[in-house]
Design goal:
With 171 residues, the chain is of the alpha+beta class. Helix content is 37%, strand content 22%. The strands form two sheets. It has a six-stranded mixed sheet with strand order 7-6-1-3-2-8. The chain has a two-stranded antiparallel ribbon with strand order 4-5. Helix 3 (67-75) crosses helix 4. The mean pLDDT is 89.
Length: 171
Amino acid sequence: MKETAIFAGGCFWCMVKPFDEQPGIDSVVSGYTGGHTTDPTYEEVLTQTTGHTEAVEITFDPSIISYKHLVEIYWNQTDPTDAMGQFQDRGDNYRPVIFVKNAEQRAAAEASKEQLKLSGRYSKPIVTTIESAAVFYPAEAAHQDFYRHHPVRYEQEQQERKDYVTAKEEK
């Protein structure tokens, strides 16, 4: 039986590939969740007035890849110490959130977050929130599988992330 997971961590363009390449992943859909309007558009979400975050909804086979493993992949794609965006993507619509669908996902996400805190990997507090999943609205077709359809632009986004991290570390 397939399950779904929803993660927000900056621009959804950059969140797809790390999950999409894993065995047991059926699909990774870019979209919006957590807001107060119905069926928002990309342009509306960018205004930061809908309350939505850019997110990915992952459909996976738990007999091949566990939810716990998905959370570990998530931590490696985000800066869990930055509540107001991710890397070069700034604003509430880019905030890091693990949206959980049930008690089991919540327990796994909370335990993983606690392990991350105790690991000493970050000197700043872990601020990624864990929230109950809301309605997920798939983004427009142009935003799906972005890394495949726009490899040059995708690589530019990845380089901007790396440059942002380097600049932040140098401060």
